[in-house]
Amino acid sequence: MAAETAEGPGPGFRQEAQRAAAALRNARDVLxxxxxxxxxxxxxxxxARTLERLGKPFKLDFEKKIAPETVAMINSSPAAxxxxxxxxxxxxxxxxxxxxxxxxxxxxxPAWRKGQTALDxxxxxxxxxxxxxxRDGTTExxxxxxxxxxxxxxxPGNRDLAVLAVIGAVGDFQDSAEGRLIxxxxxxxxxxxxxxxxxxxxxxxxxxxETRPLLSYLQYGSxxxxxxxxxDRDGCADLLGRFGITLRDAAGRNRVWNDLAExxxxxxADALLGRLSNERExxxxxxxxxxxxxxxxHTGLRDAKEFATILNSCxxxxxxxxxxxxxxxxxxxxxxxxxxxxxxxxxxxGALNYVRDKHLIRExxxxxxxDAGDAIRETVVGIVAGMLLNADWVRHDLTMIAFAQxxxxxxxxxxxxxxxxxxxxxxxxxxxxxxEDVGGLGGGHSVAAGATIxxxxxxxxxxxxxxxxxxxxxxxxx
Length: 478
Ligand SMILES: [Mn+2]
Fold this sequence. Notes:
By secondary structure, this protein is an alpha/beta fold. The protein folds into 3 domains: 11-194, inorganic pyrophosphatase (n-terminal core) (Alpha-Beta Complex), CATH 3.90.1640.30; 202-347, no CATH class; 359-477, Diaminopimelate Epimerase, Chain A, domain 1 (Roll). 43% of the residues lie in helices and 14% in strands. The protein is built from 18 helices and 13 strands. A hairpin with a 2-residue loop joins strand 10 (399-406) and strand 11. Helix 12 packs across helix 14. It is globular. It binds manganese (II) ion. The site of manganese (II) ion has 6 residues, from loops.
């Protein structure tokens, strides 16, 4: 195998980062605006610590997205500089003020000319985004990563913040497709390893390596599904029993995956891999995992994926600030964050029961759907839709579409079983097209996508979505 390279951004990017770093050093005060998800919260923590170390007064503000009011607020902010993390690139040309730094990885605003600031430095706006350097913003670098590169340009001593960018990248699923971090994320991972904050290992990539009891760890590892293991508690117990692996330690405490000895892990992993023939699924199941050895074992802070999940649950319950405190090492924040996490689990369980007990699911020929109204938070309705596709009382062969009320319209979340994406279905395209046809906006990934549409357009949207799904599936059948 070829030697591992960890190639970071080249000279052009580093030059732009140095310009932005100079602007930060010269600013009187800074307003930081960041996204509410795990990547955004990690990014905010990187920015906050960087400014703290520079001795700059700053204020931190979290947003779900950039709405027109957000643009107005940014343009009129009295702060000398506004630093926008994990958001902002798509709105670059709308920022009319002096002094904006964007460290983002979403697709940039085409109206904003690449190299604009480099050439016309007078307007004092800076954008660090992997797309501008022909890098893939969904796999090669995340918002926290771009924020980290700026932090490192400010002071190489900020290398100890790389671990936060690893959490952000994993939180944004940048490691999912390959089962490992790639591209610029690799350079960030190396910094985090060199700082002693991350240990990268090969292993089973299911969720909950530090906190889930063994049976649950195997049983609920939803992606990829393994026959006789996923959703099959007896099957999991049989497998572990066959290898003489005990579920509890000598003190009677539930063992978690990371409590297992290396040879125990290896036999279980081999058994699971033996039941998968698809190469992509094998990569998803077995690949790199990122351990955070400086955090206490058996907590959600010990593993990058679990850490990111805690941050996401903070964001979903309007408590991103607690997540940022957690990132910055405030141990007291863990309790509050775990309350968010517990509330999250209760909400999800409650929402699943609600959909079942109220018989909300309606089937059409090519899709099934439900309208949660205001009974399920728009920030969790997508998760609920995805979990329903695994429930034994719901059809597993139809795309699920869910509606929920949001501040700015009707939030649509769609999830589809792999069997349909394997047949050519691309939900992102379905959501985008149908939402635009009813005056909304949509997009996402092939298996999980979403949209926001105007109230009252649900029926029209469903009819369009059904046609589009049928057409996509039909087109690949003929
Ligand atoms: Mn992000």
